[in-house]
Amino acid sequence: MARIIVDDGFCKGCGLCVDACPVHIIELDRDRITPKGYHPARCVDEARCTGCCSCALMCPDVAITVER
């Protein structure tokens, strides 16, 4: 099992990680806004995360860390 950590200080809510996730478990959190005014990404089902790191590799702001 893997864990996805999104640093809200860097995430600008671009959604590239949402498109990159092969199991579709990342979404933009429409209930939260970062101090910079963005909706950050979040993992909706960590149990299904394969740890492929596609989200982290796609992130242009290096806001995502995947722990295995």
UniProtKB/TrEMBL annotation:
Gene3D superfamilies: 3.30.70.20. Residues 2-31, 40-68 form the 4Fe-4S ferredoxin-type domain. InterPro entries: 4Fe4S_Fe-S-bd, 4Fe4S_Fe_S_CS. Keywords: Iron, Iron-sulfur, Metal-binding. PROSITE patterns: 4FE4S_FER_1, 4FE4S_FER_2. This is 4Fe-4S binding protein. It comes from Adlercreutzia faecimuris. The lineage of its organism: Bacteria, Bacillati, Actinomycetota, Coriobacteriia, Eggerthellales.
